Amino acid sequence: PLTSDFSLPFCGRGYIEEKVLDFAKQNPGVVVYVTPQKCRSPTVVAEYLNGAVREEIIADKTVDEITQLVQKLANQSGLEIIRIRKPFHTDNPSIQGQWHPFTNKPTALPLQSLRRLEQQPNKV
Hints:
The chain has helices spanning 11-18, 20-26, 63-75, 109-119; strands at 43-47, 53-57. It has a domain at 11-75: Glutaredoxin (3-Layer(aba) Sandwich), CATH 3.40.30. A two-stranded antiparallel ribbon has the order 1-2. With 124 residues, the chain is of the alpha+beta class. It is elongated, with a radius of gyration of 29 Å. It comes from Chelydra serpentina. Keywords: Mitochondrion, Ribonucleoprotein, Ribosomal protein.
């Protein structure tokens, strides 16, 4: 028999009964399989298109914790989480500041062109 108290050890079942349909409707690009298996800890298995597989045990988690875990797994790409570092290093950083497209352009150039447009007679 199914229990109605989802704070007990059957929270995985509570998530399946209450939240999995909402998750599937909100995430049409995610396939959800429910596979009951006897004598195993309840787990969520995420298989990604790049072949990576992540398994998370949900035995002691509440329905809200399972919801957050499944959403996190759905938002990930399956790649290992690594720290992204700058590809360069210098001991003497530039004192001029970062380069941008207007670094070496004269600043008065746009004002001069606007003045020319204002001085031309309007042709109607």
